[in-house]
Design brief:
mainly alpha; 71% helix; 137 residues
Length: 137
């Protein structure tokens, strides 16, 4: 048995008719249309609810401490070991001459370029001091 087509709302039909005559695109929904109008008046930040922003910030401030309390000592050790491994993996790849982008791709991490440059500089300084003759450090 074939499905019956749903009857269109009169207001939807009217909006399509007006859009066809004027060449304007009808809004996809009342909420979206309202957001567009408010955003046009206030700017891009109009789409953010200030109460939600405040709650998100509050949760973010509590997040790390609450998470640390909830984790067992074993879980915290595992997380710390993984973080240390990633740091040493970065150092190893810098030593091999990988670029900043290559390190990000191979380790699957986001790393600030400043951190890469600092690690590279530290490695170059270490190599320079080890290769210098004794007494010239």
């Amino acid at each position: 048995m074939a499905k019956k087509a749903m009857k269109r709302d009169v207001n939807q039909s009217a909006a399509e008719l007006v859009a066809g005559v004027t060449g304007l695109e009808p809004p996809t929904g009342v909420y979206e249309a309202l957001l567009k109008r408010v955003a046009a008046k206030r700017g891009a930040d109009a789409q953010k609810n200030p109460a939600a922003v405040a709650l998100g910030r509050l949760g973010g401030l509590k997040g790390g401490k609450a998470r640390a309390k909830a984790l067992s000592a074993k879980e915290r050790r595992k997380i710390a070991a993984n973080a240390a491994k990633k740091r040493w993996d970065v150092v190893k790849l810098v030593r091999k001459g990988y670029t900043w982008r290559e390190i990000e791709k191979s380790l699957g991490i986001k790393m600030p370029r400043e951190k890469y440059e600092a690690t590279k500089q530290q490695f170059e300084n270490l190599v320079r001091t080890k290769s210098a003759p004794a007494g010239q450090h």
